[in-house]
From TrEMBL:
Record-annotated HTH luxR-type domain positions: 132-197
UniProt cross-references to Gene3D superfamilies, sorted A to Z: 3.40.50.2300, Winged helix-like DNA-binding domain superfamily/Winged helix DNA-binding domain (1.10.10.10)
SMART domains noted in UniProt: HTH_LUXR (SM00421)
Stored InterPro entries: CheY-like_superfamily, Sig_transdc_resp-reg_C-effctor, Tscrpt_reg_LuxR_C, WH-like_DNA-bd_sf
Protein name (Swiss-Prot/TrEMBL): LuxR C-terminal-related transcriptional regulator
Organism expressing this protein natively: Novosphingobium mangrovi (ex Huang et al. 2023)
Length: 200
């Protein structure tokens, strides 16, 4: 069995965390157990695969933490007797794989190996999307409208006509929008809008 260099386990159930850690250690897998995503954030790892117990908002909170650190780790979620709907929601939320617990160390190793391959492209794209959406949320409604116009290739005059404001007011909103997005150029703002799925 190929050795996994670092498996990060996040599970708020002490007993289950101990059982999983022991089972994986017996299979030759090094495990770093954490109770919560907040605890993980205090000791942010450099590399690893994250195995997280799928409780309400667990994956969402983890992805937000990864976005804040600007670093993506493949996420494998697990729970006991998960429904198909629950698995689909976890994968749509950012998990690259899902396991029904209990699982053998060999099955986990195989799953994690496949997760690494799948996560290479998916993870980076998902992280960019989350970070872009976080930036867009800083904008006022009017600044978002201006960004939408800019991303559609409209001039300040045409954006102003569409929004019924003066070109000068568009310029002010545009400058504020660029500043809040941390964008040096209009092209940066358009890229962020695309990554956040604000425009097609």
């Amino acid at each position: 069995m190929e050795r996994i260099s670092n498996l990060i386990l996040i599970d708020d159930d002490t007993r289950r965390r101990a059982i999983i850690s022991h089972a994986l250690a017996m299979g030759g897998i090094h495990v770093e157990p954490f109770e919560t995503t907040c605890e993980l954030a205090d000791a942010w790892p450099r590399t690893g695969i994250i195995l997280i117990h799928d409780r309400p908002s667990a994956i969402e909170d983890l992805i937000e933490a990864m976005a804040a650190h600007g670093q993506w780790f493949p996420i494998v979620a697990f729970s006991e007797g998960p429904s198909t709907r629950r698995i689909v929601q976890a994968v749509l939320g950012g998990a690259v794989d899902y396991l029904a617990w209990p699982v053998t160390a060999d099955e986990l190793s195989t799953t994690v190996g496949g997760s690494i391959d799948r996560a290479a492209g998916i993870g980076n794209a998902r992280l960019r999307e989350v970070m872009a959406q976080a930036r867009i949320e800083r904008l006022t409604r009017r600044e978002r409208e201006v960004l939408g116009g800019v991303a559609s290739g409209l001039s300040n005059r045409l954006i102003g006509e569409r929004l019924e404001i003066s070109p000068r007011t568009v310029e002010i909103h545009r400058a504020n929008m660029l500043n809040k997005l941390g964008a040096n150029h209009t092209s940066d703002a358009i890229r962020i809008a695309i990554e956040a799925s604000l425009v097609g």
